[in-house]
Amino acid sequence: MDKKVNVVVSEKRCKQCGICSELCPKQVFDQEVGQVPVVARIEDCISCRLCEMRCPDFAIDVEVN
Hints:
The protein is of the alpha+beta class.
């Protein structure tokens, strides 16, 4: 049985710092300067939760089912 991973970015909390995009070992996010990151490649996510742990604004939730 495969794990289902979902990554949610809160647009209200995110300050577009880019930490998640830079830290992601699988380059799951696409982000333009001054924009909220977009989860562009969820199928590549390994649910390491680096983005969730390092987000200074608690704007990212990684859900694993």
